[in-house]
Amino acid sequence: MQPGDLVFFDTYKPDGHVGIYIGNGKFIGAQTSTGVAIEDMTKDYWKERFNGRVQRI
Asked: Which residues are within 8 A (CB) of 37 and not within 5 positions of it... i.e. 6 or more apart?
Protein backbone atom coordinates (compact mmCIF):
# COMPACT_ATOMS: atom_id res chain seq x y z
CA MET A 1 0.00 0.00 0.00
CA GLN A 2 1.08 3.52 -0.73
CA PRO A 3 -0.30 6.84 0.51
CA GLY A 4 -3.36 7.78 -1.51
CA ASP A 5 -4.49 4.20 -2.11
CA LEU A 6 -8.07 3.28 -1.27
CA VAL A 7 -8.39 0.54 1.36
CA PHE A 8 -11.55 -1.54 1.79
CA PHE A 9 -13.12 -3.08 4.87
CA ASP A 10 -15.94 -5.57 5.31
CA THR A 11 -18.14 -3.86 7.87
CA TYR A 12 -21.91 -4.19 7.43
CA LYS A 13 -21.32 -5.71 3.95
CA PRO A 14 -18.33 -6.60 1.74
CA ASP A 15 -16.41 -3.39 0.98
CA GLY A 16 -18.85 -1.59 3.29
CA HIS A 17 -16.22 0.93 4.38
CA VAL A 18 -13.55 2.66 2.28
CA GLY A 19 -10.68 4.76 3.53
CA ILE A 20 -7.68 6.58 2.08
CA TYR A 21 -4.36 5.12 3.17
CA ILE A 22 -1.90 7.72 4.49
CA GLY A 23 1.02 5.47 5.46
CA ASN A 24 2.37 3.81 8.61
CA GLY A 25 -0.73 1.62 8.95
CA LYS A 26 -3.10 4.58 9.13
CA PHE A 27 -5.97 5.71 6.93
CA ILE A 28 -8.47 8.55 6.75
CA GLY A 29 -12.06 7.42 7.15
CA ALA A 30 -15.44 8.91 7.94
CA GLN A 31 -17.69 7.26 10.50
CA THR A 32 -21.02 8.46 11.83
CA SER A 33 -19.69 8.14 15.39
CA THR A 34 -16.45 10.13 14.93
CA GLY A 35 -16.82 12.01 11.66
CA VAL A 36 -13.69 12.27 9.53
CA ALA A 37 -10.76 10.85 11.48
CA ILE A 38 -7.40 9.16 11.14
CA GLU A 39 -7.74 5.49 12.04
CA ASP A 40 -5.14 2.81 12.75
CA MET A 41 -5.47 -0.31 10.58
CA THR A 42 -3.46 -2.34 13.10
CA LYS A 43 -6.09 -1.92 15.83
CA ASP A 44 -8.32 -4.95 16.36
CA TYR A 45 -11.54 -3.52 14.89
CA TRP A 46 -10.02 -2.45 11.57
CA LYS A 47 -7.47 -5.28 11.42
CA GLU A 48 -10.26 -7.87 11.64
CA ARG A 49 -12.32 -6.14 8.95
CA PHE A 50 -9.64 -5.22 6.41
CA ASN A 51 -10.31 -7.50 3.46
CA GLY A 52 -6.97 -6.99 1.75
CA ARG A 53 -8.41 -5.04 -1.15
CA VAL A 54 -6.36 -2.00 -2.16
CA GLN A 55 -7.13 0.22 -5.13
CA ARG A 56 -4.47 2.54 -6.45
CA ILE A 57 -5.92 5.72 -7.90
From this structure: 28, 29, 30, 31
Looking at residue 12, its amino acid is: Y
Q: Where are the alpha helices (DSSP H) in the chain?
A: 44-49
Question: Which domains does the chain show, CATH number per domain?
Answer: 6-55 (3.90.1720.10)
Residue-wise pLDDT tens digits, 7-29 = 999 999 999 999 999 999 999 99
Taking only Cα atoms into account, the Rg of the chain, rounded to an integer number of angstroms, comes to 10
Query: Whole-prediction pTM value?
Result: 0.91
Number of H helices, E strands in the chain: 1, 5
What is d(CA 16, CA 49) in angstroms, rounded to the nearest whole number? Answer: 10
Distance CA 38, CA 41 (A): 10
